[in-house]
Amino acid sequence: MPDRNGKCLCGAVRITATNTGDAVGACHCRTCRRWGGGPFMEIDCGTNVTFDGDENLTVYASSDWAERGFCRQCGTHLFYRLKANGNHFVPIGLLEDDENLKFTTQVFVDERPSYYEFSNDTEDMTGPELMAKFTQP
Hints:
The chain is mainly beta. The protein has helices spanning about 30-35, 125-135, and strands at about 5, 15, 25, 40-45, 50, 55-60, 65-70, 75-80, 90, 100-105, 125.
């Protein structure tokens, strides 16, 4: 699994994610769409993520279970992070190397607005299906 590097728009925050996969996901929930103006296209970077320039990093607790990070200089969205385990989902556009990635998953498809739809063959889950996946024993 490769290491991935990226940076915010102004370069004040640099990110290094170790041992990431190559699967890209999209979240269509209302919160993600409000946050970024469209679906959140991300790569699961796990917990082995480091930031250089973290004095420019601001974190917002967006729900009881997650928080979102952004650059305080340019406003670039840097991650969606689960509070329980520190797992980072990073916007795919931040990464310098986006070759050989595969669009594999879409979540909250029940909240996807009618004005767009991706044609890729992906695993699709509704919000309740996704929540059930993570709350089952």
